[in-house]
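Hi L.,

You mentioned the student needs an example of a multi-chain input paired with its predicted structure. This one should do, with 373 residues in total across all chains.
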Amino acid sequence: MFTLTNRKPLIYTALLLLLATLAQAQSYDTHRLYFGLDLLRTFPLVFERGYVFEPSIIYKTNTHTTFDVAVGFNDIRKDELYGNMDYANTGRYYRLGVGQLLFKERKKFNDFNLQFGLIYSDFTEKGTIVFKGDNYGDLVEVKKQRNQLLVLELQPNYTLPVSDRISVNFQIRVNYVVSTPKEDQFPLYYVPGAGMMQVFDDNDEGVHNSNRVTQGISIRLVYKFLEL
Amino acid sequence: MKYKLFKGCLSVIFISCLFFYSGCIDDCDGQEGEPTLYISFATAKSYTRVYGLNGKAKNTYDYPSTQWSVPMSIKNDSTIVVFESNSGNDTLTVHYSRTVKMESQRCGFRIFFDDFEIVEPTTFTRLPDLSGVDYNNELYVYIDE
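Structure written out for the whole complex:
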């Protein structure tokens, strides 16, 4: 049998645990570090093969400012782009974003942020065209173009908590390619970190133009590994 | 009444799409494969075999003709045509430049041929002036022999 004096430490411990849990669940005014992994980009659906791997580190301050650093690697393939070209895109990109909570106070389900980002994307596009030659043999032509581009990003996002440590970050991304891309071999198709370029039709002079603005959505799995 | 009007509009849209689509196909036709080189002579020649060197096709003939045709190589900058006959062989070498460029986003890339000339080894003496490959991917050579 427990006596009152025996129960006291148990009650205090239980109260302390309850308070700690409540504090953990309700207070968001702390410094926190997260690890994120983009899910939609990992399996780029519009391409036949390949991957995009984008891990990120997110730092949220107690004043509701977010710093978001990501590195991306990509190796993707698309068959029969522009009629008869097999397309490959290999490269990497770096993204630095700064965001702010859209509300005064951060609560469990109001984690809406607006984030501005700068992306540096360094990639090589390779196009392989095979012309069938029934009598003398095929002609295989390879076209390559490398681009190093600066991209600005506007990203409203929402973080949905799944548990205390795990959450899902939904993003809408609008990007503007600041640098002028080199597209002397064929129109620029995909900028790693920014998305598809939505190429314009050829103009009268046969010059290909790519749209500088891209947009897309993304889903990122986020894991909180440090809270101060 | 409204239903008939709707059906009519739908038919017009469908037929327009068909025309538009067939137009797309026609735009890109005739640009694939190896171009054909047509060689014409002033008088009929009795060649037994006419073919491109290093090519697969080696057609045989048993009648005189003034015109012969062989495929042109897209793999190399020249095509050597061999004319075999019982009295000896003739050779015609056509040299050209090839550039692979994107024609349009829909039709994709195409080989553009240019700078045609007759070069050695060629056994014919009355050499022609050459024009470019025409829209049908054909090049015509006339030898005044």
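You could point out the following to them. The mean pLDDT of chain A is 84. The longest helix of chain A spans residues 4-26.

Best wishes,
N.
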